[in-house]
Design brief:
The protein contains nine helices and 13 strands. With 310 residues, the protein is of the alpha+beta class. The two termini are 26 Å apart.
């Protein structure tokens, strides 16, 4: 038995077309399954919680949706030891499946899941902050500042919905990044990795704790990050003038920013940040409030993945 959580509205509604292709494969192969469609924000978490509570030694749960739906699902799973997760991407950003090297049509990806009798252990990140009631898992990244503000603005963006119609949804993130760089305020703060002495910075632009190499529709914030290496990777931009931010943005997009002044790249197991005023926080593009005290930490081999990758 396979359980499906399906977001028909992903990629501005094209998720429904993808689900039709998936059902054709399921019916042709006579696969026993139950499907649950998300009806509102946060509903995938509720559904995943109910499914993970079902009896059985192993539960196979397939997510049909984008990065946001995947994030909701992993935050609803109550027993990671018995739940096996498969991903069929239908979103516009799809940074999660890009980081896992999952490609192909929805039907092809489902076929590979059905044919794969084993699973892979994948790391997850977890973030805690004074803006949240409880910690939250993330597959791709969690961060504060520029990338989080862009994620917040992109939620429900008419611009994103329009560009998705032409397969240009990724362009939304670039346009919003430029807009935000022109208007955002930087912030003073400190950062400490793995219990080491804190480092100070005067003008934080963003800090992204990465479990995978790219976020925001493919921007390689941490080019060497891997989702199964037992570490997170920090990409922190600070003390860069507004003019130089625009000069260095193309270098960041090309993944060559590790040699630039103002960028800190560092692998870690845990990272503590303190900011002098509340700053926008996100996890996998989901808005988590305005925070001053934040903890990013690795959850090694937490997720059992059904997709046949690498």
């Amino acid at each position: 038995m396979y359980y499906f959580i399906v977001n028909l509205k992903s990629r501005s509604g094209s998720g429904a077309q993808c689900w039709g292709e998936i059902r054709e494969v399921l019916n042709r192969r006579h696969v026993e399954y139950k499907a649950f469609r998300t009806k509102r924000k946060g509903h995938a978490t509720v559904l995943a919680k109910k499914i993970s509570r079902l009896e059985g030694r192993v539960i196979k749960l397939i997510v049909v949706g984008g990065d946001g739906t995947i994030n909701e699902v992993i935050n609803g799973i109550e027993d990671f030891k018995k739940v096996r997760v498969g991903i069929v991407p239908t979103g516009s950003g799809n940074d999660c499946v890009r980081g896992l090297n999952i490609s192909g049509t929805p039907g092809d990806i489902l076929e590979s899941i059905l044919d794969n009798e084993d699973y892979l252990n994948i790391d997850l990140g977890r973030v805690k902050s004074n803006s949240m009631r409880k910690p939250r898992y993330f597959c791709i990244s969690s961060g504060v500042g520029l990338d989080a503000i862009v994620c917040k603005k992109s939620i429900g963006s008419k611009q994103k919905a329009f560009l998705n119609r032409f397969g240009l949804g990724k362009l939304t993130y670039l346009l919003l990044t430029v807009e935000t760089l022109l208007s955002m305020r930087t912030v003073r703060g400190t950062v400490s990795f793995d219990g080491e002495k804190s480092k100070e910075f005067d003008r934080l632009i963003f800090a992204a704790g990465m479990n995978m190499r790219a976020e925001g529709g493919g921007v390689p914030m941490a080019p060497t990050a891997l989702p199964d290496d037992g570490r997170l990777s920090m990409c922190l931009a600070h003390d860069i003038s507004r003019i130089m931010s625009f000069v260095k943005l193309p270098v960041l997009i090309c993944g060559r920013h590790d040699v630039l002044k103002g960028f800190l790249l560092r692998d870690f197991g845990s990272c503590v940040m303190h900011l002098e005023r509340p700053v926008t926080l996100h996890a996998d593009g989901e808005y988590l409030g305005e925070a001053t005290d934040i903890l990013f930490e690795i959850q090694k081999a937490k997720l059992k993945l059904l997709n046949d990758i690498w």
